[in-house]
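So, can you check this one?
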Amino acid sequence: MSDPEYRDVPASEVQQGLWLLRALGREPAPRCRTYRVVGDLDPAAVSGAWRRVWAEAERAELTVPRLAPDEYRVRLAVSAAFADEDFADTLVRELSELCAGTGQARSAGRLDDAVLGTAHGESHQAPGTGSVIAADQPDPDALAWWLSALTPLPSELALPADRPRPERASGRCGEVGVPADPELRRLIAAAGAPPFVVMLTALQALLHRYTGGDRVAVAAPVASGRPGSPADVLILPADIEPKHTFQDLLDRAAPLVATALARRDVPLARVLGALPVAREAQRVPLADVVFDYRERPAAVLAIPGTVVEPCPVPADPAPADLVLRVDDSQAGPALTLLYDADQYDPATAHMILRQYRTLLRHAARTPGTAVGELALDTPGEAARAAAEADCRADDGAPGHTVVEAIRRRASQDPDTPAVDGPDGTLTYRALYAAAVRLAEDLRAAGVRAGDAAVVRLPVGARQYAALLGVLSAGAHLSWFGTADTGERGRAVLGALKPAAMLAAAGSAPDELLDWYRATAGGRIVAVGEPDPAPRAHAPAAPAPSPTLADRAYVAFTSGSTGVPKGIAQTHAALAQFAAWMAAEFEIGPGVRVAQWVAAEHDPALAETFAALGSGATLCPVPEKIRANPESLLDWLAAERIGVLQTVPSFAREILRVLTERHRADRLGALRVLLLMGEALPGELADGLMAALPLVRLANLYGPTETVAATWHEITGAAAGPVPIGRPIPGRGALVVDQDDRVCPAGVTGELVVTGRYVADGYLGGHDRRAFAPLPGVEGPCYRTGDLARRRADGALEYRGRKDSQVKLYGSRLELTDVEAALAGHPTVAICVVPRRGPDGEPLGSPDQWRTHLRRRFGRALLPALYRTLDRLPRTVTGKVDRPRLARGVAAAGRAAAARRPAAGTEVELAAIWAGLLGAPPEHADESFFAVGGTSLLVPALLHQVRLRLAAEVTAAQFYTHQSLAALAALVDRTS
């Protein structure tokens, strides 16, 4: 069937909207009916009957191919621009009557008139396009009602998609379904509301559960009631809170739906044109989900002397991300979910449909249940998910400390290189001997078992001897680098109260060491270079040896009050994770492991003791090249590194250098690349896999409070965000809602890590709420503050933070720390709003603020950009409205860079805009829609661009080049 050419045919506003959907690859599929016909069929007679039904072959067609001597396939298709589903059924019935000789072509004249627009009254021509738009003028009160109903605007739904929406849709669509269910029909009938309302409300409740949004909207196609007219769409919003019962939702939905149906004459395009709706090429405005309810079964073709059997129609491109189609009949509702295959896998679509059906059953059976308590999984499904999320029982713990593991290595393989660094190589015998001597020095300095000791040494073999020496003495350690730590370093020492600090003998003046010695009265233990050739036999274990229950180390992370929080971990936790890491990634004798992570971060301890406890060789990265991707790649190749752990942001720099220099072949020894500390974008993972196809790639996740929590091995194309995976042995990972209920798959909630390797709290007892137990869960729990959801395949997906914490270069940083620190500066009134002098000018400056923050945090965690505002946007509760703040800052940045349209294409485009909108844009960066343009004017705009500038610009291209400047640049490239 040829597509309708809208420039030649009078078009209603609905048809103009369909043109745009077609141009964007989202056009609703033709209304199709396909039948297998067996028997004595005369194809010419059937075709003749069809011509009597509707002669407009450009907009509808009937094909009758012969499959066998007495078998045919009859396919009827009508453009969605000229018919809805009910009208397509009418055509089938009339065709059946004419084939039987009992009917007349009642529709022919009416259809042709309708298609030509004469049934719609007066028409007018869209400016400059030749398109005729029907002059339907709905009641202005009806339009006002729609604007009120859709204010505030529903937000975009964060649906449980497997991949983000692509810039250009492929048109691939999948379909899953369940057959008619008589019991479900009985339950819906007992709910006391029309089936349409009950099933719509259940869908809105499910979307609320998935997204947590208080305002969700669903698009619902509705028949126009006029022959030859396309269906339009109603956007049906719902305001939902978890405490609302399903009955509460029904009571509000029923009158809203009735009123919306009474005002269906207002085209959606007109409603959108009056709302401040963002236009995106690959998203239907205001609704990502369509609810397509069909109360009557599709008409069945009847031809005398034949047996006719309906055939399934292949899924066509869905007009939205998800389309829930309900075919309601006496046998019960049959459910079909059409999904955009660019974004969803079949398993996820099955999960969504299954959860909708489960929620609908529960809600219809007990409408007094709160929305947040409606079941999405059956008891059996919930039990299986809980079992997959709990790996606490089989943790593979080695049964001894890392000190004992290294002692055994020193005894079994004394001459194997343990550390190979910039200051030379140290064997396991030499490493252990140096650690024992340091343990004796520490005890002589008054350090006792259970005390804390800080290691602050430059990169090299002796820092690892010092780490092991502290543990061998029965003390627990905190590992500092030698960089400037600002006031934070002094705060950490004040909280830890170490018995001693280990520093390099003869080291240069160090402000932190001087402060510790003078102010805190601390002892400094000088650490010399280890003896590379100690006596031949391995030394005996020092007494007393630490036990698994003893504290091994304390790591510090940022706190919301600006005070660092200390997290203590036991030898059992350190030994178990190091053993798991070594076993899982085959770290052992002959493997060279890079020690890249900065000393202050606990993953540095994990990679250190995973290597040394398994007999591998640890290779510390020289400090001067640690942040230089070019130099690091040369070092990785020269040192034959087999295992590297880093953060995604730095891995991106490594990938850039690999791509530019074509040097991936030099990394032949690299076998494992571990990424941790930040969210891992799918495109980065895909790039690394393409550049390093023989390297094993894994994504590790876990807060300091749990050592680590989950992991995911990347074995194929990621496309979307890389999952954080499943629990590491010895841990459980649950996603819970605000009432501590376990969330089903697809539902976003807070990630809680459970198990005996969870820390028992912060030093000093700060913030015990983070370690509050979960109802029904035995053992320690840590509430991470991270948002996550479980995918259909059971893997966890990171979804951001509940609070204002961010990761910067792999370091955890509370934005409230920065705000609190800035508020302490005399020029800052609140957060980042500066006090101003009598002349109205700000007293402070970004340079002053950088200096202030550097004193608090050191050099590593300094914001790169500062933006000042006259006031901060706030919510109704008085809190800072961060989404509005982000939008306002972005808008302020754009306004600051605003410029007038430049001569040439920009000025010519501005004239076209002025002809369509009544006034030219003032600035080149203004969006067509922001200055009054609507989707209905896009065809006219592109037509004028084609005529006046000789440039072919598609609708999809325009939606990604909406500003005058961007469109002008595109025109210059294509004209």
The longest helix spans residues 346-365. The chain is about 35% helix and 20% strand.
